[in-house]
Each structure stands twice: as structure tokens, then as C-alpha cells.
Design brief:
Keywords: DNA-binding, Transcription, Transcription regulation. By secondary structure, the protein is an alpha+beta fold. The chain is built from 10 helices and 9 strands. α5 packs across α6.
Length: about 290
């Protein structure tokens, strides 16, 4: 579990440099990971993007400093990386619900985000099946949404997107015209901080003409780690995602290659059945 131990070291590094410029490349270097892999692993393990976590910790420390010292709002703002009292006040109010000056007078309603800590456990009680697949680039068609990952908004938006797509007949029509993989849920177009992603419900392009409100995208060639998922949707899928990042990556030495991720639904069974089969595809590198 060296990977998780390195994650702990990176969190210690963040904590020691909250009032300095924190560069993602330096944080990831402490964890001995690429920037993309570190940020993706951090999000999957904690539920926070790295930037979101840093903001929360800075605003927590700033609130403590305001309440327990005679520091001026401007000085605290500058100390935690805000260029102006106005930008600091806006961020502070969004998190704590009150202004920095009000916090000095009434600290009872302030929120606190504690430093993260992982409990490292060597599980190993259940084997984790996977296979490595080399696949050339391929075209997909479908519909997408752009969603924020902050506060778990992506989970809610993607779940609603699937419900809507199933109810309006889109997924049924897509499956009729798709390729061998079946229906796909593809995460792509990650922004540098991984706070926003595009999620596409699609299928391999198998037709020349498709509806005007569909879009066509290309999935690059990659080496994929493919993980089977057994069980009803939506509950079975998140459990495997968690194990991939908390067990598989730390124990194998592979890293995320930085490309699109796919949830693959090849089965025509009822997704709510106990023996429903699906897969998670993640692009990897040594």
C-alpha cells in the first residue's frame, strides 16, 4: 500500500504549505505520481478535488486565525492566497455563511474541514479480477453533459442524466445502433483541476447517419485495465470504483494514463438484477 502512504505524505505537504503557493506538480511529486493520476486518485478516495480540499483547509485555518488573533481581514486574506479582501470575503461567506468580520464577533456558526487522514488496511480477503486490453482508437456517438465534480455534483447529475435518457427512449435507440461493447458511460474532457468533466452516454459508432442532437467523439487508443462488475445498478458500480483506487492501483504500481474512463454495459439483462454484469475500463500506464 505504498501508494496510500505516499498520499498521506502529500496531505502532510499540503498542510505545511497552506499559506504558500501550492503547485499541483509539487504535490503530486511528493506522492510519486503524475498530476492526473494523483488528482484522480485523490478525488476517488476522498470525494474532494485537490483544489476543493485546499480551499476548504485554507478557509478553515483562516477562520481560526480570525477568531483567535487580532489579525486584520486583509492580512488573513493575503496570508491564505487571496489577492483582495473582496475575493476572500466571497469565498469565506460561501463556506461559512457569514463574512470574516462577522466571524470575529460570532464564531459559533463557523464550519471546519479537518485535515484528511486515511486508514490504511491490507484487505486482500476478496480477489480483484481484471484483464489488460489493448484497443485502437474508435468513434462513439451519443449525448453528453458537462458537470462539476465539486461536492459530488457529478454523481447526482450523471444519475439524473441516465434516468432521463432511459425514460425518453434515447438509450434504447442508442443500443439498437451501437457496437459490440454495448452502452457506454464515458468520462472525458477533464479540466486541469478535475473539477469539471464531460460525461457522455454513448455507444461505438455503427451507423453513418444519426440524429442531429447526437454528437460524435473519438476515444484514443489505449492500454485498458478492465474490471468486471457483478450486481445491480447503481449500487454495484461505486464499490468497484472504490476498490480500484484504494486497492488495485496502490498494489500493482500502474498509474492512470490520463485519458477517458468508461463504464461498459454489454448486458441486456435487467440492470436491477443481482447477476447483472458490467465493466469499468480505465486507461493505464506503468
Amino acid at each position: 500500500m505504498q501508494g496510500l502512504e505516499k498520499m498521506l505524505e502529500s496531505i502532510d505537504y499540503i498542510e505545511c504549505h497552506l499559506n504558500e503557493d501550492l503547485l499541483m506538480k509539487d504535490i503530486a511529486a511528493v506522492a510519486c505520481m503524475s498530476k492526473f493520476h494523483f488528482q484522480r486518485m485523490f478525488l476517488m478516495l476522498t470525494g474532494y478535488t485537490v483544489s476543493e480540499y485546499i480551499r476548504n483547509r485554507r478557509l478553515t485555518k483562516a477562520a481560526h486565525e480570525l477568531v483567535h488573533s487580532k489579525a486584520k481581514v486583509m492580512d488573513v486574506a493575503l496570508n491564505y492566497g487571496y489577492e483582495s479582501p473582496e475575493s476572500f470575503t466571497k469565498a469565506f461567506r460561501k463556506m461559512h455563511g457569514i463574512s470574516p468580520s462577522a466571524a470575529k464577533k460570532n464564531p459559533n456558526s463557523l464550519k471546519a474541514y479537518p485535515k484528511l487522514s486515511f486508514q490504511i488496511q491490507l484487505k486482500g480477503d476478496v480477489e480483484m479480477d481484471y484483464k489488460i486490453v489493448e484497443k485502437e482508437s474508435f468513434q462513439v456517438v451519443g449525448k453528453s453533459i458537462r458537470t462539476s465534480c465539486v461536492g459530488g455534483e457529478n454523481h447526482r447529475n450523471i444519475a439524473n442524466f441516465w434516468v432521463e435518457s432511459n425514460q425518453n427512449g434515447f438509450t434504447e435507440k442508442l443500443a439498437e445502433n451501437g457496437g459490440n461493447l454495448g452502452l457506454l458511460g464515458i468520462c472525458l474532457d477533464f479540466d486541469p483541476q478535475q473539477e469539471h468533466i464531460t460525461y457522455l452516454i454513448g455507444a461505438e459508432k455503427n451507423i453513418d447517419e444519426f440524429p442531429k442532437d447526437w454528437e460524435e467523439r473519438m476515444v484514443p487508443a489505449a492500454t485498458w485495465a478492465v474490471f468486471p462488475v457483478h450486481g445491480p445498478m447503481p449500487n454495484a458500480m461505486p464499490k468497484v470504483w472504490e476498490r480500484i483506487f484504494s486497492e488495485w492501483f496502490p498494489s500493482t504500481g500502474y498509474q492512470h494514463a490520463g485519458g477517458s474512463e468508461m463504464e461498459v454495459y454489454p448486458s441486456k439483462q435487467d440492470p436491477a438484477s443481482e447477476d447483472y454484469y458490467s465493466e469499468i475500463w480505465i486507461p493505464i500506464k506503468q
